[in-house]
Amino acid sequence: MHTPSVMAAHDDPTELRRRASVLRRLATQLDGSTVRRLPRLADDDTWCGPTATAFRTDTEAAWRGLTRAVESLQRAAARLEREADAAAARLLSGTIR
Amino acid sequence: VSGFLGFDPERVVVLRRALGEVDDELGALKAPDPLAGEAVGIARAALRRLVTTWRPRLTELLACDPTSAYQPVVLDPLDLSLVDVVRLDRVGWTTVTDPLEVMEVDPVDHAEHLAHLLLGLTAADVLGNARLLDDLTTAIGQLTPERALAFGAVLGPTTWGWWVAEAGTGAGGAALAAALGRAATPLLARGPRAWEEALLDAAPLAGARALAGIDLATDHLVRLAGTVWERSLADPFADALAARELLATTLARRDDGMAALALLEGWPDDRLDELIGPTAVPGPAAGAFLVAATRSGERDEDRFAQLTRVLAWLDERRELWNGTGLAPSLAEAAGLRLDWFAPEAGPRWAGLPIDWHGRDPLVILDGIAHEPAAARELERALAIIVPIRTRQIERGKPELADADLEALGRLVASVEASIAGHRVTVGERRYRTWTTGWHLAESALGLLLPRSGPVVPELGARTRRLVERGQSDLAPRSPEAVRADEHRRTDSHLAVHEHDVVQAVLDTVTGRPGTIVAPAPGGLGRLAYGELLASWVSAPGLSPAEAATRRRAWERVRAFDAAVARGAPG
Fold this sequence. Notes:
Structural class of chain A: mainly alpha
Structural class of chain B: mainly alpha
Order of helices and strands of chain A: HHEH
Largest sheet of chain B: 2 strands, antiparallel
Low-confidence stretches of chain B: 337-375, 418-478, 488-498, 518-532
Strand content of chain A: under 5%
Oligomer: heterodimer
């Protein structure tokens, strides 16, 4: 017979939600990166010319990479939250004894 | 695009500091969960590339190192090729050489840079620098609508209006004003009042010059042009006349004359003087405007109605027929209609529509048929005329048999009845229907009996007989119709006679009759003949004998004119 105190981590809703929370916090942190401020800091009021254009191109690439990372973390967090919900439902229905 | 970089050192320092923060974020970035591994990897790669590439590059840029690829350079801020590098509206920028590969600047950004340049310049900067003026005019004139929107968004309507006013009234700035007008087209088309107000606030000449470049829908353009025109009438300065002249020629060029037609249609009858009168606009411009408005094309009936309306206005201002440029232009317009009506007649008609001797122009122009119905009638006439012409040729004689004349007479009557039924004329004179029939008959006769050679002397009599037979079963003619007939008949005599005189003179001068053939009657028109003779008689450097010959020829014409005036032509 299993008790909550000895449940595996992947069956523990609390643990799953904690992990999801960590991922979301990281996503928020990345989404608030200084990279997001760079386009405004490097706009036409700052500079014009090939170097400025190249910087903008690289900034856009970094911005897109950051966005992909944020979305990846949010998807992973959502997956963990769904698993937590399922584990909680199983607990309530007595599947785990 | 150039191999230079312009920058604000203080802002680049801030940018470098921001990259330092990115570097700190990169150092602190850890994967707190196995599921975060991939995402953190992506983020780390993105940030690392940015930091490793750009922190040292910005440091180099700011270091003023003599070995750096970024070397200070002095650039001409008025060189338009540097507009994407130098911002005149920014104080304290540094310019350096740029080692990076030149990259194409986004055209929308380029449009914004152009606007920034204008924001930083004075009118004297531009109008006093021919190269910059040309470059700016070209660059602004070539903006696509999307780029023009970006350009306008930066410039704003107030500054745009200021530039229109400055360029539009400054020496050499007309093309720039037109380019600015073109660039504002998408903004005006969207309807914000601020842009229209900026345009209308400018001096009339500046507004007209901008409108010369604005490419709006006809109705919108005409509304703005009409407003500028009205304002110019209240403007006390000499530029106002130039403004109206430009507006007239601009509208004449737009939309196959539809813009000119629209303004003319909307202009009140009792104020036509302010639109086409000699104090409102120079004659040639008024002529170009009226020709465009009234020449055949789309909305042909409306155009013809306007032609008739203008001619009625001119009928009360006979003095305008000479010396203002209006009459030749309207003769052209009317001639074009005749060409449409009888294209095979060609330029033979061009000199005929206008009576140059103070007679009623409506007599002639009311007779211009302009509907397909008239063209069908002419075809029907040709079906009768061609066999007659064929028989003439077969007989080898130009004379017409009585049966032929009767057939032609019936044709005239039938044409008139058909014209009355189809309302193919526009006008208010009672004789218009009759004169239209006359024209149709004459066009038929023109094909049948060329107005030169041995049949010429018979033309007047034959025409008279033909008309009399053709209208024998018509209602009694009005006095105006009788007068019109007399005018036409007289003109025929005059044209034929003058042609003979010109030919005789040419024969005398060359000593070899026929080597130079005088233009056919109608090819130049009576005034043209008169002018031709006058200049020929008064040509400088003539020998006394030659001058006397020419004088005698001229006197023959004058004697003939006098005889006509006494009612005894020929």
